[in-house]
């Protein structure tokens, strides 16, 4: 099979129609170029040039080969550049898991920053809850996760990219929604509460329990749900109140009023909601480190 070196020599001679000029262009001496052309002709079992003491001309076979040879050389150069770019973390594909709320807070920042700074990056986006994301990170089916903090998993690293507060989501027209003063969590005593499920949303479930204990609040849990959009749908239906991340207020339907927890509430030290970016520490995809660094700068 012919080689790229042979094709490069062939194209140089074909375009210069002079072995000496082709050798100068390729910064070679003339004998090696002549040998490469002879080897190529033997490989293809056909004559590519007509050589006389006065001139060099392409044969019909040579004219047929020339456009294909140019394409092969260009494809080779592009392939090498593409591979180097992937190795340097400048281009390639990443699968990113994200929670429903992250889609309205951190994810848009990532997409904008990646479009500007990593134009060769293609992101495959996959919405899933934190537990599922962590499982997929461990299996290697997701490269990066935008998720809530979890207990440490061997081989998975994470860092916080967003910290915000929980706010109250109230049915429009309800007693608390019409209340004009600051709302303390103790005002939720005996209120119907829509609670995060301990299985699918353990982070939020445990956080709310800590806040209720700190504020001596005793709401009535009437329904569990695993995701913020489901909780907001239940609030909109008038079934109860919920606590949601501040960035999720833009998801609230018209029938939901969002209000902050009062300054000075005894739950204040606990009212911090974190969103992390997580990745496998043994990932061999150089884009992972590039995207993590990008998120940390744009958090």
From TrEMBL:
Family the entry assigns: Belongs to the LysR transcriptional regulatory family.
The HTH lysR-type domain, residue ranges: 2-59
A Pfam family per the record: HTH_1
InterPro entries given in the database record: LysR_HTH_N, LysR_subst-bd, WH-like_DNA-bd_sf, WH_DNA-bd_sf
Keyword Glycosyltransferase: no
Listed GO CC annotations: protein-DNA complex
Name of the protein this chain belongs to: LysR family transcriptional regulator
Lineage: Bacteria, Bacillati, Actinomycetota, Actinomycetes, Micrococcales
Keyword Nucleotidyltransferase recorded: no
Key words of the record: DNA-binding, Transcription, Transcription regulation
Taxonomic superkingdom: Bacteria
GO molecular function, one term: DNA binding
């Amino acid at each position: 099979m012919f080689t790229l070196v042979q094709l490069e020599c062939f194209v140089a001679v074909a375009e210069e129609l002079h072995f000496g000029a082709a050798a100068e262009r390729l910064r070679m001496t003339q004998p090696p170029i002549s040998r490469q052309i002879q080897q190529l002709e033997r490989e293809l079992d056909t004559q590519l040039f007509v050589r006389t003491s006065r001139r060099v001309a392409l044969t019909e076979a040579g004219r047929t080969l020339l456009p294909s040879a140019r394409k092969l050389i260009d494809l080779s150069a592009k392939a090498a550049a593409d591979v180097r770019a992937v190795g340097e973390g400048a281009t390639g594909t990443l699968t990113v898991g994200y929670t429903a709320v992250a889609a309205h807070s951190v994810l848009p920042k990532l997409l904008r920053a990646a479009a500007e700074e990593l134009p060769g990056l293609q992101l495959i986006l996959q919405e899933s809850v934190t537990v599922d994301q962590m499982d997929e990170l461990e299996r290697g089916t997701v490269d990066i996760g935008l998720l809530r903090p979890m207990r440490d998993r061997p081989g998975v690293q994470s860092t916080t990219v967003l910290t915000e507060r929980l706010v109250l989501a109230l049915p429009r027209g309800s007693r608390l929604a019409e209340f004009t003063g600051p709302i303390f969590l103790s005002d939720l005593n005996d209120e119907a509460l829509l609670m995060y499920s301990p299985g699918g949303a353990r982070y939020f479930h445990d956080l709310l329990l800590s806040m209720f204990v700190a504020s001596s609040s005793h709401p009535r849990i009437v329904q569990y749900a695993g995701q913020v959009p489901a909780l907001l749908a239940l609030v909109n239906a008038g079934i109860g109140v919920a606590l949601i991340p501040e960035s999720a207020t833009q998801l609230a339907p018209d029938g939901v009023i969002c209000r902050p927890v009062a300054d000075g509430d005894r739950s204040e030290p606990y009212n911090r909601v974190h969103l992390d970016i997580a990745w496998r520490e043994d990932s061999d995809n150089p884009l992972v480190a590039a995207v993590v660094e990008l998120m940390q700068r744009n958090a």
